[in-house]
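anyone seen this seq b4? input:
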Amino acid sequence: MNKRRTNKTFTNLGDVLGKIIPQYRPATDQYLLRVWDLWERAVGPDVAANARPAAVKANTLLVHVSNSTWLHHLRFQEGDLREKLNRAIGREEIRTIRFKIGPV
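predicted toks r here
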């Protein structure tokens, strides 16, 4: 019979992911993972309350927005948001931001 070890303490998911992700994501892309940590500070609380990064592919960031009004609004601010995020990351890596209505 297979006995399972029980762990009576919780482990922070961020710590687990921090150990696993580097094994599957190229080291050159690690900076992009910081986007999630820096998002609210880089874009401000109003945008952060209505938009969240959802995925990164190559140099394109996909951002989910809460509704069509925010989608329209942020499309006009794409250049400014890209500049703020690149500055926060410390590298000019995000070249395009795509917006899509989705879970925030």
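Residues 29 and 76 are 27 Å apart (CA to CA). The longest helix spans residues 30-43. kinda curious what u guys think
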